Amino acid sequence: MRLTQGTFSFLPDLTDAEIAAQVAYALSRGWACSVEHTDDPHPRNTYWTMWGPPMFDLPDAAGVMLEVNACRKAFPRHYVKVNAFDNSKGVESIQLSFIVQRPAEEPGFGLARSEDAGRTLRYRVHSYATDRPEGQRY
Amino acid sequence: MKNDAPATVDLAALLAEANVTDVLDRLDRELVGLAPVKQRLREIAAFLAVSKARGALGLAGTPPSLHMSFTGNPGTGKTTVAVRMAEILHRLGYLRKGHLVAVTRDDLVGQYIGHTAPKTKEVLKRAMGGVLFIDEAYYLYRPENERDYGQEAIEILLQVMENQRDDLVVILAGYRDRMETFFQANPGFKSRVAHHIDFPDYADDELFAIARTMLAQGDYRLDEEGEAALREYIARRKAQPHFANARSIRNALDRARLRQASRLFARATPVTRDELATIAAADLRASRVFQEA
Fold it and tell me: How far is A94 from chain B (nearest CA, A)?
């Protein structure tokens, strides 16, 4: 199942040139980019692992691409995304966030039911990836 | 071979279109002396225009290696020329942004194990799309200490210089003899730096012309005796140790302006506009340079 989170996620995967062009756009608006990765892509998992701090004061997209490629190299089978923050208003508000790498095989999610008091049914979204321990997923 | 390639390319038009001629002319006008440097800059600009034209006509060509080394004594204009170089490369389309990031050993090398690589990478990321200017580059290599972290910075630099040639241009600068030792000890650098530009020392006349330009920028001028004093000052200062070409001249003028201010301040009568703008011979002759002789 293809993960659809963030901008452009219904499009075919972006090429490196397209990613660089998006990053260049973000930098031209004065946004700072950061790289994050995870092996637990549950829709409610908003806290992915940071790949280094956000990169402020970069004039050119090549610097961000350097970190994207370093992260891909270190975690070849994780999801990797690029975030762009606008800090001009004094809050860290994400303006743009898109996936730049996904694993070859995406197991997807299942709907798990559990019974509660009085035969009430509760539902939750279960990520098949988390069935295996950390480091062995994907 | 592309079919839609045009039959001819006008090289001069290519340069003019990118406003490179403009930058080169301004360089000629605004920088005194440095004839061999200006000549090399013109050659490099022509070479870049030709490789661009070759690309337009569908001729094969690897992108030219643009890393450079600027050697010369202090105060000979290395940083100033590096800023212009970044502008030329940007206008010719070899650099996307054309900014200059000037660093020294301190900015690249860390204090403890594992500190150097992130620091160097941080600087490299900031310089991407522009020029990385490493002043006194030979300090990166310290042969007397085999555990020096400079070697780590050198390795990262070499890797980026090789793999991301279209993302950034590295300019190494420093004294001529020490740079030569540095290149001999690091053959990797020597083979990756294509252009070696040597900055000659300024002649007395050139230093005088530089001084006049500096004064004119600050709306100062010299009276006749002052000019004679300045010429004499230049000749004497050059013979003394720690002479740093244009930088020494700028410092001397700064001190002369201080003396002019206190001279005018000590007077009881009101000062005229003319007096405020004029540096007199006395302001220069009060210098230590004249006293020691």
Answer: 22
Between chains, do A55 and B125 touch, taking CB under 8 Å as contact? Answer: yes
Say yes or no to pLDDT of A34 above 90: yes
Q: In angstroms, rounded to a whole number, what is the distance separating the alpha carbons of residues B288 and B270?
A: 29
* Partner A contacted by B99 (CB < 8 A): yes
- Structural domains of chain A sorted by starting position, each given as residue range(s) with its CATH number in brackets: 16-104 (3.30.190.10)
| Residue A72 CA from chain centroid, whole number | 12
In the numeric block, the tokens 């800023």 are attached to: B83
Token pair 């020294």: residue:
B104
Q: How confident is the model at residue B241 (pLDDT cuts 50, 70, 90)?
A: confident
Partner A contacted by B168 (CB < 8 A): yes
Render pLDDT for A35-52 as a digit per residue (tens, 0 to 9). 999 988 888 888 899 998
Of A113, A98, A129, which Cα lies nearest the Cα of A1? A129
**H or E element at residue A32:** strand A32-38
CA-based torsion, B91, B95, B99, B104: positive or negative:
negative
Lowest mean pLDDT among A34-48, B11-25, B206-220: B11-25
Give the residues across from A121 on adjacent strands.
A115
Q: Is A70 helix (H, G, I), strand (E, B) or coil?
A: helix
> Pairing state of beta strands A109-115 and B195-199?
unpaired
CA trace torsion B203, B72, B198, B154 (10° rounding): -170
Inter-chain touch A58–B168, beta carbons under 8 Å: no
Report how many Cβ contacts below 8 Å link chain A to chain B. Answer: 37
Least confident of B56-70, B217-231, B236-250: B56-70
Distance in Å, alpha carbon of B15 to nearest chain A alpha carbon: 25
- pLDDT per position as a tens digit, A101-129: 999 888 889 999 999 999 999 999 988 88
Cβ contact B200:B76 at 8 Å: yes
ipTM of the prediction: 0.74
Residue B88 main-chain phi, psi, to 5 deg: -60, -45
Inter-chain contact B164–A67, Cβ cutoff 8 Å? Answer: no
Q: What Å distances lie between residue B274 and B156, B214, B216, B271, CA to CA?
A: 57, 18, 14, 8
User: How many residues would you count in chain A?
Assistant: 138
